[in-house]
Structure formats: structure tokens, C-alpha cells
């Protein structure tokens, strides 16, 4: 059978990650394995999550498990949370409930970009932007972050804009680097996109990818691009703050500073767009749980302690690490500049890590802070020994 060109292009983009995922799945349950690859749970679920799901599973009417679109109580709870968190005037109608951030990103791409349009994506960055774009016939345009700090390179973004550019993806806190972009960087980006939009005669949007927004360390603040650039839409996932990625719940939110007529047009397009991409709404039970889940969180302080333990041990061993300000991850240069070799060596010793090749950075690697303390303690001496061999 011959796949469509779009399907083949998407397969080519995501193939290495799919193969890696299969290998991790094959080995993760082996006795004694220390799995520091994906941001998966390795401890029992949060009681607040379980309580919220249990409360919603008991039917209260005949229509309890009927088709659901964007349910008003969930929209209202999310808008209220966003008003408090971001100090912006979100309204319930600004919210489209989705199957995690995946669904929100997919919806944004379909609402804002036509086939053949271009979307600027950060490198290193999340490995699913490009295949999601390819399967829709939209062209991903990778633009490097600053090679030293992994901050936004506003000049590089502006230079990458063409008459086909429709969206710039901004991921903060950023996967895999853990960087949180300060307001001044976002203001410079906003000014550049205003200038480039005028130059090409077409509005450039920002998709602010914020699934780790509530997972930040050391009291660092957060500014959403929606606060400085009106032409912003926000995607979010509850799977991170709840450490329950298998329970698909997220949303796409319209930046409330965008012009009222544009905001109305997008609001009206939510449900038709969600129907068209294949019933892009969360299950009824997850929507019922939203008001309770807004106040449930993993222990971010414990994640910070795991970050400190890994960062301290690896720094002492000579690793060069990017300062981790948020997310689940620690991002570092591999000894000898070969992340694949490091990952292979550690896998032989029962420690699984993610090589930077999956982020188009073969000289780096990523560790997940959601690993158990026991897994982290097993991994540290192996990582230290690997650095000593190269050194």
C-alpha cells in the first residue's frame, strides 16, 4: 500500500521518536531499570485527581455520558483560573476544551494555517510539532534557539519569516531545555512580528505552548506571549501538572487582547473545527472534573529537589548543563559531544535517558525529573562514571 505524501512526510519526521518509544516500552518494566526518559508517572496518582474522577463518574442524569462539546462549567473554571494566573481578561467563550495539548495544538494549526503555509518551530524543541504540521500539509520551518543560552533568537525568527509564514510557536517553560522566557524577550519578539506582519501584508500568529506553565522553580515568574502580543493563542495540558498524561485533558485559549471581531470569528470556529479534526473534545468525565482539577498539583517542590540533586551531581562531575527554570527536564551536553553513545552506554548499565538526536541536537541529552528518587540515585553514579571515561 502506498501512503499519502503527507502521511509519509509525517512518518519520516516522527520515525526516530516512535522507534525510541518502542525501545523504552520494551525495557522500562525490566527489574532494576532506572527510566529517566519521558515525563511519565512512576509513583501512584494524586489523590485529588482520583477524587475528582470518582466524583464525576456517578451519573446525575440520563445525558451524563452523552456527546459533549465545550461544556460551560469547564470553560468558566478555566477562564477564572487564567484570569487569576495571567492577570488577563479571559472569558469562558475564549476556551475550547481539547484532548490534551496535542488536541489544542492540532486545532490551532487547523484554524490558523492553510495547506502550504509555514510555521516556525523552535530547535531544540518538542518532537511532534513537525509531524503534526506535515500530516496537515503545512510546512514546519525550524529555527535555532540561542546555542549558548537556549533563549529565543528573535533576529533568527524574524529572518525566517516569508510571505507564507502564518504561526510562530513559542514554548515556555521550554521542553527540553527548561528555560522560561522573560518578558523582555517576548516583547522583542512581539515587536519583530508586528514589523514582519506589516512587511508581508499578512498577520503572523503566536501559538504559545504552555503545558508546563505551572511547573517552575526557584520562584521564577511567568509571562505569556498573550500579555504582550494580542495575536496569540495558548495551548495547555493538565497532564503535566497532574502527572497523568494518559488522561487527555487540555484547552486552546484565545488571547483576550486580540481585536474583538477576530476573537468572535475564532470563537465561532471552535466547534466546527473540533468536529472536523475528529471530535476534538475531552471525554465527559474529564470535563466534569475540570473545576476540581484546577486546584490539584503535583509537588513542584519535590521536582525541584530532584533537579537540584541531579544538577549538583552532574555539575560536579564536569557536565555542562542548561539552568532548569521549569518543566520536568534537565538538559545537558553529553561527554565527548555524543548523546547517542552516552545513551547506549547507560542503557547497558540499566539507565535509560533520551539522546539529543531526538531534538536535532546530537551533542546533548535529556533527563526526566519525574523518575523516582531511587532511579535518580541509581543513574547518578553511572552518569558520573560516563563523564570520567570520556574525560
From TrEMBL:
Which Gene3D superfamilies would you find in this protein's record? Type I PLP-dependent aspartate aminotransferase-like (Major domain)
What's a Gene Ontology MF term here?
A: transaminase activity
Q: Name a Pfam family for this protein.
A: Aminotran_1_2
Under Enzyme Commission nomenclature, its number is 2.6.1.-
Instruction: Please list every transmembrane segment annotated in the UniProt record, as residue ranges.
Output: none
Arranged from A to Z, the UniProt key words for this protein are:
Aminotransferase, Transferase
Where the record annotates domain Aminotransferase class I/classII large, the positions are: 65-380
Cofactor dependency = pyridoxal 5'-phosphate
User: InterPro entries of this UniProt entry?
Assistant: Aminotransferase_I/II_large (IPR004839), NHTrfase_class1_PyrdxlP-BS (IPR004838), PyrdxlP-dep_Trfase (IPR015424), PyrdxlP-dep_Trfase_major (IPR015421)
User: Which PROSITE patterns does this one have?
Assistant: AA_TRANSFER_CLASS_1
Highest taxon above the source species = Bacteria
Family under the similarity heading: Belongs to the class-I pyridoxal-phosphate-dependent aminotransferase family.
Q: What is this protein called?
A: Aminotransferase
- Source taxonomy: Bacteria, Bacillati, Actinomycetota, Actinomycetes, Micrococcales
Amino acid at each position: 500500500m502506498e501512503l499519502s505524501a503527507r502521511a509519509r512526510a509525517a512518518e519520516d519526521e516522527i520515525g526516530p521518536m516512535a522507534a525510541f518509544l518502542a525501545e523504552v516500552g520494551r525495557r522500562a518494566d525490566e527489574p532494576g531499570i532506572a527510566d529517566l526518559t519521558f515525563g511519565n508517572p512512576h509513583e501512584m496518582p494524586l489523590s485529588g485527581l482520583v477524587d475528582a474522577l470518582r466524583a464525576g463518574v456517578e451519573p446525575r442524569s440520563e445525558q451524563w455520558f452523552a456527546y459533549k462539546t465545550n461544556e460551560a462549567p469547564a470553560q468558566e473554571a478555566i477562564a477564572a483560573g487564567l484570569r487569576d494566573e495571567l492577570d488577563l481578561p479571559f472569558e469562558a467563550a475564549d476556551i475550547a476544551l481539547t484532548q490534551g495539548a496535542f488536541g489544542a495544538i492540532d486545532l490551532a494549526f487547523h484554524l490558523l494555517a492553510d495547506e502550504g503555509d509555514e510555521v516556525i518551530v523552535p530547535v531544540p524543541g518538542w518532537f511532534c510539532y513537525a509531524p503534526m504540521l506535515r500530516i496537515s500539509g503545512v510546512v514546519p520551518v525550524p529555527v535555532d534557539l540561542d546555542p549558548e543560552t537556549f533563549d529565543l533568537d528573535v533576529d533568527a525568527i524574524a529572518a525566517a519569516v516569508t510571505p507564507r509564514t502564518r504561526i510562530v510557536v513559542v514554548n515556555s517553560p521550554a521542553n527540553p531545555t527548561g528555560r522560561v522566557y522573560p518578558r523582555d524577550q517576548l516583547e522583542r519578539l512581539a515587536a519583530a512580528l508586528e514589523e514582519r506582519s506589516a512587511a508581508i501584508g499578512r498577520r503572523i500568529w503566536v501559538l504559545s505552548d504552555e503545558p508546563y506553565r505551572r511547573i517552575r522553580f526557584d520562584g521564577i515568574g511567568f509571562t505569556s506571549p498573550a500579555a504582550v502580543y494580542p495575536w496569540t493563542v495558548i495551548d495547555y495540558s493538565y497532564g503535566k501538572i497532574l502527572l497523568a498524561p494518559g488522561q487527555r485533558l487540555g484547552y486552546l485559549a484565545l488571547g483576550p487582547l486580540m481585536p474583538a471581531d477576530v476573537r468572535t470569528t475564532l470563537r465561532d470556529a471552535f466547534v466546527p473545527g473540533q468536529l472536523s479534526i475528529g471530535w476534538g473534545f475531552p471525554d465527559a468525565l474529564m470535563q466534569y472534573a475540570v473545576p476540581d482539577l484546577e486546584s490539584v498539583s503535583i509537588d513542584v517542590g519535590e521536582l525541584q529537589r530532584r533537579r537540584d540533586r541531579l544538577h549538583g551531581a552532574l555539575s560536579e562531575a564536569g557536565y555542562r548543563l542548561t539552568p532548569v527554570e521549569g518543566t520536568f527536564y534537565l538538559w545537558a551536553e553529553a561527554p565527548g559531544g555524543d548523546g547517542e553513545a552516552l545513551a547506549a552506554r547507560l542503557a547497558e548499565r540499566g539507565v535509560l535517558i533520551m539522546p539529543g538526536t531526538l531534538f536535532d541536537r546530537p551533542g546533548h541529552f535529556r533527563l526526566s525529573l519525574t523518575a523516582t528518587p531511587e532511579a535518580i540515585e541509581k543513574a547518578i553514579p553511572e552518569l558520573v562514571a560516563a563523564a570520567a571515561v570520556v574525560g
